């Protein structure tokens, strides 16, 4: 009986010591969790700052979409234009800047201008849309790629749901503005659906661009 009482007293003492130790450790654990949470918040703030920097300090463009609408008219067809006699191919970098506009063609042919505008100056409003290029551009020639860009250019002002179609030398594609909206700072935005058909195989992609105060279009992350 004495041994049982002694053992019980030892167990109670051990429990009291463990409780005291846990009471001392718990605040430290909570403080460590708070520090981790604080570090995560700071990391997210830095990520937001970097996204702001990439968008010229304007913040993330998150348009308030007006919703999908459907066009019931006839599809519009791009009139393919041949290169003017004065046009000379110039080796252009894949990523460059013109008049403070970022021009980035991730895929395909490299050339000045956009669509059937053969000079950067003439294509100024649309140069930022080059970032919406598809990897299948690598399988298009320059005229076909320019035809697709021309369809994208026309889709910036076409009715929502109006498919802009091009067809050139066995390749074809469409660009459709599927919805539009406006950001908190008043920028008009559109989401584009792009499709390229090569040998019966379809490749689709979506992208969003907003019109800047100067009138030029800029691709954004929605």
SSE blueprint and pairings:
Blueprint (H helix, E strand, L loop, with lengths): L1 H53 L9 E2 L10 E2 L17 E4 L2 E4 L37 H14 L7 E6 L2 E12 L5 E11 L2 E11 L5 E4 L2
Parallel strand pairs: 2-5
Antiparallel strand pairs: 1-6, 3-4, 5-6, 6-7, 7-8, 8-9
If you had to describe this structure to a student in words, what would you say it looks like?
By secondary structure, the chain is α+β, with helices and mostly antiparallel strands. It folds into two domains: 1-54; 64-220, no CATH class. Helix content is 30%, strand content 25%. Strands 1, 2, 5, 6, 7, 8 and 9 form a seven-stranded mixed beta sheet that branches. The protein has a two-stranded antiparallel sheet with strand order 3-4. The N and C termini lie far apart (75 Å). Residues 1-6, 18-30 and 44-60 have low confidence and may be disordered.
| SSE sequence, one letter per element | HEEEEHEEEEE
The end-to-end span amounts to 75 Å
Overall mean pLDDT: 82
The poorly predicted ranges are 1-6, 18-30, 44-60
Give the tally of structural domains: 2
Our Rg estimate from Cα atoms comes to 29 Å
Query: What's the helix count?
Result: 2
How many extended strands? 9
Q: Looking at the chains present, what oligomeric state does this protein adopt?
A: single chain
Secondary structure: helix percent? 25-40%
Major sheet summary line: 7 strands, mixed
Going by helix content, strand content and strand pairing, the class is alpha+beta
How much of the residues is beta strand, in percent? 25-35%
Features:
alpha+beta; 30% helix; 2 domains; 222 residues; globular; 2 helices; seven-stranded mixed β-sheet; disordered N terminus
């Amino acid at each position: 009986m004495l041994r049982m009482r002694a053992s019980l007293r030892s167990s109670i003492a051990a429990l009291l010591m463990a409780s005291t130790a846990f009471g001392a450790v718990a605040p430290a654990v909570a403080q460590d969790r708070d520090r981790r949470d604080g570090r995560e918040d700071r990391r997210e703030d830095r990520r937001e700052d970097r996204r702001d920097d990439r968008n010229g300090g304007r913040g993330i463009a998150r348009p308030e979409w007006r919703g999908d609408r459907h066009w019931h008219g006839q599809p519009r067809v791009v009139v393919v234009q041949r290169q003017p006699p004065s046009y000379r191919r110039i080796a252009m970098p894949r990523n460059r800047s013109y008049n403070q506009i970022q021009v980035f063609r991730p895929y395909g042919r490299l050339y000045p201008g956009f669509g059937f505008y053969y000079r950067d100056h003439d294509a100024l409003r649309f140069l930022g849309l080059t970032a919406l290029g598809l990897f299948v551009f690598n399988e298009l020639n320059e005229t076909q790629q320019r035809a697709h860009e021309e369809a994208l250019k026309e889709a910036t002002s076409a009715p929502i749901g109006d498919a802009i179609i091009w067809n050139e030398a066995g390749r074809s594609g469409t660009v459709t503005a599927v919805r539009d909206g406006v950001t908190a700072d008043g920028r008009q935005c559109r989401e584009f659906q792009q499709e390229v058909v090569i040998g019966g195989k379809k490749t689709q992609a979506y992208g969003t661009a907003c019109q800047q105060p100067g009138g030029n279009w800029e691709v954004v992350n929605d």
